[in-house]
Amino acid sequence: MPQLTAALEDRDGHARVAAAFALWLIEKKAEPSVSVLIAALKDKQHGSYAPDSAAEKLGEIGPAAQAAVPELVESLKIDNRGLRIATAGALWKITQKAGPAISVLIEELRGDHSLAESNTSYAFGILQAMGPHANKAFPMLAAKWRAEPEDGNSAWVRDELLKVLRAINPDAAKKLEAK
């Protein structure tokens, strides 16, 4: 425990995030973990993925990280696709409200990014977890599913999209498959 507590002050953002989350896992106390993760969200070190990781970990903490909601909402305004997706997921997991999360996920998936890219895959997982709460995303996801070729590397992407579509609206997904 003393080493983890000391690592909360480490110069490396990833070390701070890992230590904060490890403390959460061991103690199940929001503080000091949530405060350290909130501070990591603001990490402006160029090329650092610590803010993305901090958002993911806040989401894993769930409702106990409620204090992070205002800073997570601010993070949605940052022009960083990975951070925006991780933040949307965290907001969903903490609040269980689709609110801004669904809008951000739709916006980030509408782009020309590869559907096999890791951030896209993470967004798919969030939408799948949201289930019927992500119904607003169904038309866009269905269009992407129809547009993906049925062979090669795209087969995996189509399967992943179909899992998400089934989680959101099983009946509509069946109709889509039948066509």
Outline the fold blueprint.
Elements (H helix, E strand, L loop, with lengths): L1 H6 L5 H15 L5 H9 L8 H12 L7 H7 L5 H15 L3 H12 L7 H13 L7 H10 L6 H15 L1 H9 L1
Helix pairs in contact: 2-3, 2-4, 3-4, 4-6, 5-6, 6-7, 6-8, 8-10, 9-10, 10-11
Would you give an account of this structure?
The chain has 179 residues and is mostly helical. It has 2 domains: 1-79, Alpha Horseshoe (Leucine-rich Repeat Variant), CATH 1.25.10; 98-179, no CATH class. Helix content is 69%, strand content 0%. It is built from 11 helices and no strands. The mean pLDDT is 91.
Which features characterize this protein?
179 residues, mainly alpha, 2 domains, 11 helices, 0% strand
Give me the Rg, rounded. 18 Å
**Total number of strands:** 0
Which runs of at least 5 residues are low in confidence (pLDDT < 50)? none
* Tally of separate helices: 11
Q: How much of the polypeptide forms β-strand, as a percent range?
A: under 5%
Instruction: Tally the structural domains.
Output: 2
Shape: elongated
- Largest sheet report: none
For the termini, the CA-CA separation is 57 Å
Give the topology string: H per helix, E per strand. Answer: HHHHHHHHHHH
Level of helix content? 55-70%
Task: Determine the mean pLDDT.
Answer: 91
